């Protein structure tokens, strides 16, 4: 079919229904015939909400949790279009190291000094000074694409405590990556990300206000699903793709014992999964680029065990790095992140540093997160060059920094090229050109009440960030 105002209506297969696949399908479905193939029995990918708590009535996110209106321009635009209800989230970072030998929080002066022993440790004062100096000097120093963050720390002569008790734990928590891999992160990319997300401490109130979806991320997933079905899109759950064939007539997708022909295909799965789907039909360039990105498995446990938090209650933070007996993990305090009453304690721990009693566990799931070393960054450029070749497109958060906004950003690039309609926001460097006012989607609706639609306030914190 040809619409003079919109062009040729294509049949497009979207494989994978995480944020990348769902947003690509949503923005293409108005003008094209979309079929979504999802191997799992549900939509959403890392947008995963579980009902938990003492009465089983608390919606808790175990993957994607928070966002802001400064560095998530695509996601917040989508939420505004879908009227997704959101609420403010409280963000803070803390650490409990070596079985509680060192504990601190970076939310305010009280949490900084919660462990009184730190006040007598010169190394602790130097760590705080190094955090501030890193924020000031790192952007100018990180100009070489080949320099790793470990090399940059050495170059700036930042101390042992800064490296091992702050930077490595923080980066490991942000990217859900073992600390031994953090040293190999490309410095320029990491510092650029820190700057854009207001994570470079400068000793002043410069942090973004964070938000979470009211009722859990499932709320936005349901709205996308409803929009797709209303537009006649075909959604196939529990339908893993066995293989695809690319030829002159299009792309044939084999799934569920059926073969279906499409004009274009969008692989919105992890890069290694996309390579497996391509199989022997993958080109040399596809094998090299998609195969260069490594993944780290992370086990997430939703539970009510406060034993995963710091010994000192004053150090409890929205997300806490914990090392114990050589094991490291990160715990997210869901009561603070998603405004759950403290009377119903809920936590999500990635790679628990100690055992969690079985009777305190509500849910377990394993995620895979990309490791952003220099090989991965080179692969990103190679994948950009491959886009659209052989009627094949690659979407996924692995194309940028690995977060929810990066997943939808990768989809919007494909949507723009497929539709020839402008989609890219600003310089598309992970941050809006200017800080926007909170749009309609940031207002509470119905029986929730209304939040003032004002510019997001900034809250003091040396560091406060989390998202998956």
TrEMBL record:
Domain Amine oxidase: from-to ranges: 19-281
InterPro entries given in the database record: Amino_oxidase, FAD/NAD-bd_sf, Zeta_carotene_desat/Oxidored
Signal peptide as annotated in the record: none
SUPFAM superfamilies: FAD/NAD(P)-binding domain
Superkingdom of the source species: Bacteria
Annotated GO MF terms: oxidoreductase activity
Pfam family, one: Amino_oxidase
UniProt cross-references to PANTHER family, sorted A to Z: AMINE OXIDASE DOMAIN-CONTAINING PROTEIN, PROTOPORPHYRINOGEN OXIDASE
Protein's UniProt name: Predicted NAD/FAD-binding protein
Organism in which the protein naturally occurs: Ruegeria halocynthiae
Record lineage: Bacteria, Pseudomonadati, Pseudomonadota, Alphaproteobacteria, Rhodobacterales
């Amino acid at each position: 079919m040809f619409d003079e105002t919109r062009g040729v209506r294509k049949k497009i297969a979207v494989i994978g229904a995480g944020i990348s696949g769902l947003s690509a399908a949503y923005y293409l479905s108005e003008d094209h015939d979309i079929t979504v193939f999802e191997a799992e029995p549900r939509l959403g990918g890392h947008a995963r909400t579980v009902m938990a708590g003492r009465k089983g009535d608390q919606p808790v996110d175990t993957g994607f949790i928070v966002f802001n209106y400064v560095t998530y321009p695509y996601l917040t635009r989508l939420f505004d279009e879908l009227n997704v209800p959101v609420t403010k989230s409280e963000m803070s970072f803390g650490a409990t190291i070596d079985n509680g030998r060192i504990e601190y929080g970076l939310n305010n002066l009280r949490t900084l000094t919660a462990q009184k022993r730190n006040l007598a440790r010169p190394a602790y004062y130097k760590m705080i000074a190094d955090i501030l100096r890193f924020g000031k000097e790192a952007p100018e120093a990180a100009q070489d694409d080949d320099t790793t963050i470990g090399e940059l720390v050495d170059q700036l002569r930042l101390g042992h405590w800064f490296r091992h008790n702050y930077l490595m734990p923080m980066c490991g928590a942000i990217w859900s990556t073992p600390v031994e891999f953090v040293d190999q992160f490309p410095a320029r990319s990491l510092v650029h990300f820190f700057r854009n997300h207001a994570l470079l401490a400068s000793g002043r109130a410069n942090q973004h206000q964070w938000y979470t979806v009211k009722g859990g991320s499932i709320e936005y997933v349901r709205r996308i699903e409803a929009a797709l079905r209303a537009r006649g899109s075909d959604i196939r759950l529990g339908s893993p793709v066995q293989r695809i064939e690319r030829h002159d007539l299009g792309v044939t997708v084999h799934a569920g014992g059926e073969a279906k022909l499409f004009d274009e295909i969008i692989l919105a799965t992890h890069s290694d999964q996309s390579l497996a789907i391509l199989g022997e039909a993958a080109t040399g360039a596809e094998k090299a680029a998609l195969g260069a990105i490594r993944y780290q498995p992370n086990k997430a446990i939703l539970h009510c065990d406060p034993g995963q938090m710091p010994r000192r209650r004053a150090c409890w933070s929205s997300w806490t790095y914990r090392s114990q007996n050589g094991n490291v993990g990160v715990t997210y305090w869901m009561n603070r992140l998603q405004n759950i009453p403290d009377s119903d304690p809920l936590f999500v721990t990635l790679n628990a540093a100690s055992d969690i009693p079985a009777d305190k566990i509500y849910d377990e799931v394993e995620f895979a997160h990309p490791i952003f070393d220099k090989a991965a960054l080179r692969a990103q450029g190679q994948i950009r060059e491959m886009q659209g070749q052989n009627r094949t497109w690659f979407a996924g958060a692995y194309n940028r920094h690995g977060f929810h906004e990066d997943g939808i950003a990768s989809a919007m690039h494909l949507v723009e090229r497929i539709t020839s309609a402008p989609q890219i926001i600003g310089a598309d460097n992970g941050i809006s050109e200017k800080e926007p006012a909170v749009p309609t989607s940031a207002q509470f609706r119905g029986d929730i009440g209304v939040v003032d639609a004002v510019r997001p306030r900034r809250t003091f914190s040396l560091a406060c960030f989390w998202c998956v």
